C-alpha cells in the first residue's frame, strides 16, 4: 500500500502525452476542454522598420504546455495575442469551435469575450479590493449567493479561505499568487495563460502552488500555457515544452511519454524523462482519457492520461523525478 | 570619529534648513495666527449676520459648488483621455489645459469679458435673447471654471497615468467592458489623487478675486465683498469677512482629507494625509 502510494505520488509528477498527435485527436469530442489553436503572424516595428516579428503555429492540448525562451523571445507577446491584449495582423486564435481571432474572416473578439484567463507576471491584483472581492471580480453577472459559493469553493481549494477580508498588500507573496490563480480560474475559463507567475517565489512555496495548480488541472483539463525560464518548473508542471526564439518555435518536446510502441520508445521525450519502465495497460478509463498500467516486474499500478489506451497494449512509461 | 563628523555635518544641515524653513513658516502661518488671535469673535459673528455678508457666503458656496460639479464632470474624462488615449498632438492638448494656470488673474478676467461680455462672440448671441453671461451667477461660475479646472484635469491626468495598465488589462480578461474597467478599476484607484485636485480647485474657485472683479462684480462673492468692505470700512470691517473666507477654505481641506481616508488608501495621498496630522 505504502509502495503504491509512493508510486502514485511519483506519477502525479507528470502526465502522459501521446507520442504522435494529429489534428483529429486534438479536438476533444466531449467532456474535457477543447484544444487551443494558435497561428500568429505579426511584425512589430518602430517608424516602419520591423524590429521584431512573431510567427508561430501550434496547437495546445488540454494540460500544461510550457513556453520557454530567453527574454525578448516573444513569450509574453504571444500570450497577450492569445488573450487579445496585443495587436496581431494575421492568424487564428481558436479554442475548439470558438474562434476568437481570425484575420481572414475579420473576427477579433475583445478580451472580455474570449474566456481566456491570464495570470500576469506581477499578478495585477486589484489593490483597492479585498482578497474576496478580487477572487469574485470576474463573477459580477452572478447573483450574490451563487457568487459567494463559487468564491468560497475556489478559495478553499487554493487554501486562501482565511484571507478573505485582507487587502492584497497585507498577504505574503505566495498567498498573492494563490489569489491570482483563484481569481483567474473561478471564471471557468476555456484557456489559462500564466506569464512567469511563480518567478519571485522560493522553491518550497512554489512547489505547493504547483501542486494546487496540478490538482485543479487534473479536474478541469483545459489548455494551459505556462511561460517560465525555470527548468525546475518545466519539469514539475509541463507535459510539453515549446521553446521560442526570436518569435519562432525552435523546439517542441514532449515532457513525459507513454508510447505504445516499445520498439521505438518515446523519441520526443528524451530530454525530460529520467527513467523509462516497460508496462502493460491493464484498464482503460475512456471518459477520463486515461489508462491504468502495470509496470513489468512489479506489482504497483499507475494511472496516466493517455487517449490511445487499449487493454493489453505494451507501453513504456517515462518518469521524471522532481524535488 | 568618522561617524561624529558625519553626524555633525548632518546636524549642521538640519539646523540650517530648519532655520530657513522656520522663517518661511512664520511668513506663512503668522498672518492666519494673527487673524485668529486678533479677532474679536463676537464682532466677527455679528458682522457675518449682516444680510450682505450672508448673501456673499451664499453666492460663494453656490457658485463654487456648481463650478466644482461642472469641472469634475468635464475635467475627469478629459484627464483620463489625456492619460490613456492615443491622441494626435497630445502634448499640445496638455499644454492648452495648463494655459489658464499661467494667465495672470486680472488678465484672465479681461479675456473672459471679451469673450462672454454682451459684445463678445459668445456673449452677444445670448445677449440678443436677453441672457447675460456677466455680472450674475453664470459669470461667477464661468470665471471659477476658467481658473480652477486645470487643477482637476491635471490631477486626473497624473492619477490615471499612475494606474497600472496591467490592472486594466486584468479587468478586461475577467470580463469587463471598457466602461466597467473605468468604473471598477481606473476611477477608484485614481480617485484619491483626483480628490486632491478637486479640493485644490474648490479652494481656488472659492478665493477667486481678480477675474471675478472684472467679469462679475455683482453678485458679490466673498472675496469681492471682502474688497468692498475693505474699501469702505478699512481693516476693521474687512476682518470678519477675511476670517470667514479662511475658515471656509480650511474646512474644505479638512473635509476633503477626511473623505479621502474613507474612500480609499493610496500612495498618492499618503504623504498629504500624514501631513495633516500633528503627530508627524
CA-based shape of chain A? globular
What is the average of the pLDDT values of chain B?
85
The termini of chain A sit apart by: 22 Å
| Secondary-structure class of chain A | alpha/beta
Which residues of chain B sit in consecutive blocks of at least 5 with pLDDT less than 50?
A: 264-280
Secondary-structure element string of chain A: HEHEEEHEEEEHHHEHEHEEEEEEE
What share of the residues of chain B lie within helices? over 70%
How much helical structure, as a percent, in the residues of chain A? 10-25%
* Mean pLDDT over the residues of chain A: 76
Structural Rg of chain B: 23 Å
* Poorly predicted segments of chain A: 1-31, 259-272
In spatial order, strands of the major sheet of chain A run 1-13-17-14-15-16
Q: Biggest β-sheet of chain A: count, sense, barrel?
A: 6 strands, mixed
Strand content of chain A: 25-35%
Rg of Cα set of chain A: 20 Å
Task: Based on Cα principal axes, name the global outline of chain B.
Answer: globular
Tally the helices of chain A: 8
Summarize the structure.
The complex is a heterodimer of chains A (323) and B (280). With 323 residues, chain A is α/β, with parallel strands linked by helices.
Looking at this protein, list some descriptive labels.
heterodimer, A: 323 residues, alpha/beta, 6-stranded mixed beta sheet, 32% strand, globular, disordered N terminus, B: 280 residues, mainly alpha, 12 helices, 0% strand, disordered C terminus
